[in-house]
Fold this protein.
Amino acid sequence: MSYRVFISLIFLALFVACAQETEDIAQTIPDRPDFIFDVKPLLSDRCFACHGPDEEKQKAGLALHTAEHAYAELKDKPGKFAIIPGNPEKSEIYRRIISTNPEQVMPPPESHLNVAPHEAELLRRWIEQGAEYKDHWAFSAPEPVKPPKVKDQQWVKNPIDQFVLAKLEDQRMSPSSPADRSTLLRRVTFDLTGLPPSPAEVADFLADKSPNAYERVVDRLLASPHYGERMAVSWLDLSRYADSHGYQDDRPRSMWPWRDWVVQAFNNNLNYQDFVTWQLAGDLLPESTYEQKLATGFNRNHPITQEGGIIQEEYLAEYASDRTHVFGTAFLGLTVECAKCHTHKYDPITHEDYYQLTAFFNNITEAGDAGGYYNLAPTPNLKIDNPKLEREITSVLEYIAGLEATQRELETSVGMPLENLASETEEQLLTKGLVAYYQLDDISGSRTESTLPGGQDGWINYNLPPTFAAVKAVKGKQGG
């Protein structure tokens, strides 16, 4: 082989390698780069330190975080622009990024940052396509998206498959082979109910050879009451649900009716507009129903203190802030806490915006504390409207009445009704073996004294756990 042929082959190999690298780079870049998901992360990581929203650190008067600033004429270079939509070659940002001159290249060498070739190509393509800036996704209304085109059309069973397969093909990956039927049933049952399938359900599915067997399983799981329980879990976490106050001793609070409403809302497939509206302001709707009022328990899940020595106004402010923070996370897709203290240079919510928003959640007639140890429903509260529960309560009350009737019969049989005990003399009581008698229908204080003459024979303390003190130990009629 001649020297010239050898050199030609080397150059050809290098050319093929470069062409392959260029093809690889092109395949890793979206056809239409999105500012929020593709471009902004790149600019934020490599450029915003010197050309971002912090006005005190902006160099050359250039800011790239908004279109208004990025499209403007450069202050120190008249006639030059950082970004010219549709023309990457004349856009200074692209020219600087691909420059090999250490005096011109951006980011500068001393920053120890660099832009990889595929990132430079992504930026070039974005500028070429118009360099469109977009607001944060939480401020953009969702729009229908056309399913992407894919190569393996045979694999696609529904439009969702096209999105999955398109991403796999972008990454040069192939779909996994189909799962066996037992695994498939286990996955979908866990996904929709949070529970494993029963042996009988597995057997039924394996025996069902019809083409719509899987669809029937899905329909059955969606109709299960466990579906709502499974779907409610994430919402309950986001809504900071708990059946307790959250401060100090963390005493119980009855929020479970709201929890049950959430579960039922998923099981009834309540539309999202009502799901949101009722929870935020169901009580403000014209002729609002019990269910709509109950839904507003969403705004009462926050911790509520029952400590007696608190400053009421302080905790009222904390409660309003908590409702604001959860609203921002759940419905705006934003964390708004930073603006509680100051306007943040990286936060679209200003200090003023925060307190205007908080004002909406600061109109509840409530107290700063829960109202004492035994108040299980801090005001304002809602009486439960539950026919089934009312029937159960009635049944319990009837049972108690039966016990009381039996008690009266026993009292009569021994000839000593309990209501007459207080009229007995101390000597008569002690003769009958009675050490102390407490009228437990009066617990207005922290303790109840014995009604025996003198009251020194004992008392009951109502602090938790119950403690007993100053009770005389005597020999009983039937033993110690």
Q: What stands out?
A: The radius of gyration is 36 Å. The beta strands are 447-449, 459-461, 467-469. The longest strand covers residues 447-449.
